[in-house]
Design goal:
Radius of gyration: 13 Å
Shape: globular
Distance between the termini: 36 Å
Structural class: mainly alpha
Number of strands: 0
Number of helices: 4
Helix content: over 70%
Strand content: under 5%
Length: about 70
């Protein structure tokens, strides 16, 4: 069941990217697994939405910065 739950957001992102709707930063911030999947696909050249790649990288960088500064 967990596999299906993990598959659904990735499928939604794929379907949305085909419709011209990129996954936004809010969605990527709330779903780290989807963000990781998009980043892997962007890195290996199989992701075809440059805006999603940019959004995922921006959210990842912001998350790393927040963790390095510590929660306040």
């Amino acid at each position: 069941m967990k596999g299906i739950a993990a598959f659904v957001p990735a499928l939604a992102a794929t379907l949305l990217s085909g419709c011209g709707q990129s996954v936004g930063k809010d969605d990527l911030k709330s779903d780290p697994k989807l963000r990781a999947e998009i980043l892997v696909a962007c890195a290996n050249g199989t992701h075809n939405d440059a805006q999603e790649c940019s959004n995922a990288k921006d959210v990842e960088n912001a998350d790393k910065l927040e963790r390095s500064l510590g929660h306040k």
